[in-house]
């Protein structure tokens, strides 16, 4: 679930101006509203004034909570894997269908989520409708458990999937609408953190909740599971309420400030696909192969930790959730770091290698699983921050929407298929083979990273230039590459450490080459 | 010859180099007493001449210059005697009248006696049942409050002849208590399925232990019996005759490879001290469904083998007949399941398998598929890195040589 957040964040950060309100409307109304509230406004009136920061923070709280329900419920199956498989009498393959059914609608919806919000529902109704879908999906999911019908549970996940991803788009659109040009990066960071918290709370609470329900009923079984999932669904109702409140606040702000409804600004044209460069396709490959080695693993990890490392159920849940816990604080930090330092390919390479190392540790050693999972958490956060913004460097701005939509779609397709494959592999050959399989996936991703570097280098691209070089480039070519900081916080040469193995080059020449070839590439 | 054999210890997590070395040594070892790739295996039911319902199951596995005899009996508690000889011509001799008399010592022997290189036995005296609902007791590590155990010596066993399958090399001892006032076994039974192998391989169903011609498999199946409590756990007592006071050693190993038994990363082995060593090898899981599946697996705990007074154990005639009455015993208990998770009463089914053998316990190794993937996975990026680095070098050289005239 976290991944679409990353995508949206990158998309919106890359084109913040697309969601600007009508010309002049914002500033004019804002000063008007400020003059109304006056200098001596009480804290209460500040809270009610849409032009005031305090009010925006209130709205931000609701924005963060808007996604909480869907993030919480997305990983319900992972938190209750053992219980679901026992109570519903299903194999891992069948179990993984629950994740697969979530991903399928999003293979297509990624292209249309933005369109639905912009053209059909509007942001307010869009978020309410998608929240409602999430609620209905979760209720169907829980009903399926109550009446012991697994097909109904799958249907529930499908409906849930339709709402879930689009709700994330709506959430980000709200953020742009309310915070454009102000505290936008921080807001995205906070929303991502909230997503991780939702997932973490779920992983640690659902097992406990199940045992409490079991204690109350006096027996376990599909009824217990259904009731537990229903209680979990309360978070979705909670998010729906947030969507309603947020809709009201947005409507009120629009009336007072005369601003426009937020828009995603996504313009998706499938015909753009034929213009995608090799670099972009390689980025897609990295994305798809990387994420299939992370999310399906987290979905299946709990039993692995209990079986191989002999940890308790609670500790296994905690280990499983450390990836999300870590990425909550690390996402903004790494985002800032990559922004300042540039050299995206180097960071992606680091992240992929670290992920591979963590899977190798899990597969081939008995080392404390906390080490490997912390490493996975760190590398996962780093990859999200370095990979998604790269798209903006290899695609013209008017194709960004299509490129990101496509990237998410491929990722969802990968997850949908690999969830099934991973379950099948596990049932037939066990966790060791599954880990080897994941290592193979990450390895394909690693191959693509290396290829991407070579392709980018030979074509004189700027993907691995430092931030300073990019700024120089943008000055020289008078092209906005949307980077603000001219200060690289890392030594210039850190991006080529591995090339040192094969050649000794002078950093001055490298820099010159990077700028020169880039200039040559621009007409 | 035997003393020089390397001692295999399963698949230790950190000793794969050692493992490889062991494999190499094994390949180099001359065809000795054991370690035959294939054996001629025959199963034979030997009936008491006057009363054919009293009988023994004799499994004879003949190699190039060795023979392994497994003698199964349900006279008294179920028991298996296993004997290795260094000749392909050793035979089993039974004096039935003496065997069924009160003093059966010496009535069963493997001849020629000089050729016997290893002998031991396993006896299964009791089936335990525990009430695991009392959580305070369960936390102490005890399986729960014990119900009165079932004495397997008091079971009546079906005729093994009817279950003998000479092509599959298998036979089954199936029994139920002779007196069953509670009717617990009215629709149920306890069975010991015996399976011998003429070569190495792996069973199609879990736990898929690797077997060789030097091993035979024993599967205990409890099915249909009515448990006495809501969440009953079952346990099995195993007794081993020892000539000295030293009990076989229990080794529980961790393995990183669960390819053949998903989600089970442990292997338990009971190793005799003699050389060649006997062993009992099992995965610490039992299965609570007829179609074994790793999700219905229940954990199997084992206690350390400890010496026990012979008087506390029901006597097995074949063991006394072979080892004499002055033999000491070691016992250990296996407990199947825990207070949470799948339980026996869900399907009223429980099965547990183990390999019994002589020589070096079989060791799992990575499958060729895994090795192939690993080579590809680690090789491809490395190749690309080297190739890419070189081509970059050439490219860079060309590019700068193009610039040179300008500057």
TrEMBL record, chain A:
The keyword Transferase does not apply. It catalyses: L-lysyl-L-alpha-amino acid(out) = L-lysyl-L-alpha-amino acid(in); L-alpha-aminoacyl-L-arginine(out) = L-alpha-aminoacyl-L-arginine(in); L-lysyl-L-lysine(out) = L-lysyl-L-lysine(in); L-arginyl-L-alpha-amino acid(out) = L-arginyl-L-alpha-amino acid(in). Residues 56-459 form the Major facilitator superfamily (MFS) profile domain. It holds the Pfam family MFS_1. Belongs to the major facilitator superfamily. It comes from the Eukaryota. It is found in: Lysosome membrane. Residues 1-32 are annotated as: Disordered. Homodimer. Interacts with lysosomal protein GLMP (via lumenal domain); the interaction starts while both proteins are still in the endoplasmic reticulum and is required for stabilization of MFSD1 in lysosomes but has no direct effect on its targeting to lysosomes or transporter activity. Lysosomal dipeptide uniporter that selectively exports lysine, arginine or histidine-containing dipeptides with a net positive charge from the lysosome lumen into the cytosol. Could play a role in a specific type of protein O-glycosylation indirectly regulating macrophages migration and tissue invasion. Also essential for liver homeostasis. One of its GO terms (cellular component) is lysosomal membrane. The gene is MFSD1. One of its GO terms (molecular function) is transmembrane transporter activity. Keywords: Lysosome, Membrane, Transmembrane, Transmembrane helix, Transport. PANTHER family: MAJOR FACILITATOR SUPERFAMILY DOMAIN-CONTAINING PROTEIN 1. Gene3D superfamilies: MFS general substrate transporter like domains. This is Lysosomal dipeptide transporter MFSD1. It is a multi-pass membrane protein. The chain crosses the membrane at residues 53-74, 95-117, 129-152, 225-249, 278-298, 318-338, 345-364, 370-395, 402-422, 428-454. InterPro entries: MFS (IPR011701), MFS_dom (IPR020846), MFS_trans_sf (IPR036259), MFSD1 (IPR052187). The keyword Membrane applies.
UniProtKB/TrEMBL annotation, chain B:
Its main location: membrane. It comes from the Eukaryota. It is found in: Lysosome membrane. The chain crosses the membrane at residues 369-395. The keyword Iron does not apply. Residues 1-35 form the signal peptide. It is a single-pass type I membrane protein. Pfam families: NCU-G1. Keywords: Glycoprotein, Lysosome, Membrane, Signal, Transmembrane, Transmembrane helix. The keyword Membrane applies. GO terms for biological process: positive regulation of transcription by RNA polymerase II; protein localization to lysosome; protein stabilization. GO terms for cellular component: cytosol; lysosomal membrane; nucleus. Interacts (via lumenal domain) with lysosomal protein MFSD1; the interaction starts while both proteins are still in the endoplasmic reticulum and is required for stabilization of MFSD1 in lysosomes but has no direct effect on its targeting to lysosomes or transporter activity. Belongs to the GLMP family. PANTHER family: GLYCOSYLATED LYSOSOMAL MEMBRANE PROTEIN (PTHR31981:SF1). Required to protect lysosomal transporter MFSD1 from lysosomal proteolysis and for MFSD1 lysosomal localization. This is Glycosylated lysosomal membrane protein. It comes from Phascolarctos cinereus.
